[in-house]
Amino acid sequence: MEQRGLKVLEADKTFFTKITSTISKLLIPTKVGINGLLISMKRNNVIKAYELYTETKNSEDITKREQSIQKYEETYSLYLEAIDKYIMDSVYKKVKSGTASSFEKDALSKYYTIVHLKETEYIEYKHRKQKYLLELDYETVLSLKKEKLLERYKAFYLSKMEALYKGILKNYSIQLADVNSAKFHADEEIYPKIFSTLEEYITTILPLKMEREKDEISKQVVEDYHKFERFEVGKLDQKDQIEKNTILLGISRSLFTHSLPLSVAEQCYIKLLKETRQTIAKAPNEKKKEQAYQLLLNIIEEYNVRLLSTKVYWDKPELREEYKKFWNNYQNITKLQKTDYLEYLRKKEILFIRADMKKISQSKKDYTSIIAFYKKKLVENEDMRNLKNTFKTKMGKFTKKV
Fold first, then answer.
1. What is the 3-state secondary structure (H, E, C) of the chain?
2. Using only C-alpha atoms, what is the Rg of the chain?
3. Which residues pair with 391 in a beta bridge?
4. 238-255 vs 219-229: helix crossing angle, rounded to 10
5. What is the model's pTM?
6. Tell me, what's the pLDDT at 9?
7. 245: how many CB neighbours lie within 10 A of its CB?
8. Which region holds residue 198: left if phi is over 0, alpha if psi is between -120 and 50, else beta?
């Protein structure tokens, strides 16, 4: 299948949410029975192997444990091969003969978009192809409406999908860390892929995990997920997109700590801060500017509290000492939260503005307009005086300095 040439078309983003996205819709009519039976058999085998693997993975009997792992890997490989061969081959023949529906064309388009990665991004191809085939069969299991089968399949499905998403994100993390590679352009390629993959996971997998493993999901993740739900409907502007990505990144700190390590998450936060400052500078009116500014304060807090506070290794000791001072000030300000909430907000805002202003003042990029905006905010918070730009001449006249 991978060697066949076929023009890659853009697949519908809502592909896997359509009720018609089932394997039965992809099979050649004359072979529905036999193909469905073969896939069903392989599916049952992999479910049994997975259940045996989960029962023995902590066993003290090493031989038994290794045998269950080997059996699981073998049945999983055969299961994916069955989906690949009996479904995609059927669809390919229908597209080639001109008898395929638009759904079938979209299915094959998505498949070949993934296959196209094989020559340039093999690791991503390997993970995404497995994910794609599993998603196809999951929709089929849903359509069968067999509760017992669905519950057993979900356990296997979530385990595999979790591993595949982690593999994809880990691959992006390695690419982002490879600063010497001219092959990747982080702003154009890696960052969007990271946020897109996190969104895929949180949209399709996290709700299933929350349903099955609600006692194991942290309260913070649940709260962040409900915040994320607000951005699932409607067109998003730049500010909304940044806010959504901030929530995605926050969830990732709980769910993908190792796949998306702190150094990579830090780079993502820094990118979001840059984008938000740019949004403030380009805001068409005061209302939009203020909304972007409030978002910036939230990101600064998330970056410093959820990420930097957990950072152990610092490249430069002076940066660590500087952050210690920031953290101590933040802790002291937090004590005001219960006794004087307005003063708490005012002092926290001042702390964040001054910290960010210091950073961007050392940047090679021109942040003149943002620094001027920050100074205005400091004046409003009575932390800076607004000195009149005038002086008095010997003749006793006041003149504005140019």
1. CCCCCCCCCCCCCCHHHCCCCCHHHCCCHHHHHHHHHHHHHHHHHHHHHHHHHHHHCCCCCHHHHHHHHHHHHHHHHHHHHHHHHHHHHHHHHHHHHCCCCHHHHHHHHHHHHHHCCCCCCHHHHHHHHHHHHHHHHHHHHHHHCCHHHHHHHHHHHHHHHHHHHHHHHHHHHHHHHCCCCCCCCHHHHHHHHHHHHHHHHHHHCHHHHHHHCCCCCCHHHHHHHHHHHCCCCCCCCHHHHHHHHHHHHHHHHHHCCCCCCHHHHHHHHHHHHHHHHHHHHHCCCHHHHHHHHHHHHHHHHHHHHHHHHHCCCCCCHHHHHHHHHHHHHHHHHHCCCCCCHHHHHHHHHHHHHHHHHHHHHCCCCCCHHHHHHHHHHHHHCCCCCCCCCEEECCCCCEEECC
2. 27
3. 399
4. 160
5. 0.83
6. 40
7. 24
8. alpha
For residues 398 and 390, is the Cβ–Cβ distance under 8 A?
yes
Low-confidence residues of the chain, pLDDT below 50?
Answer: 1-21, 27-32, 182, 402
Scanning the structure block, which residue is given the tokens 């002076």? 318
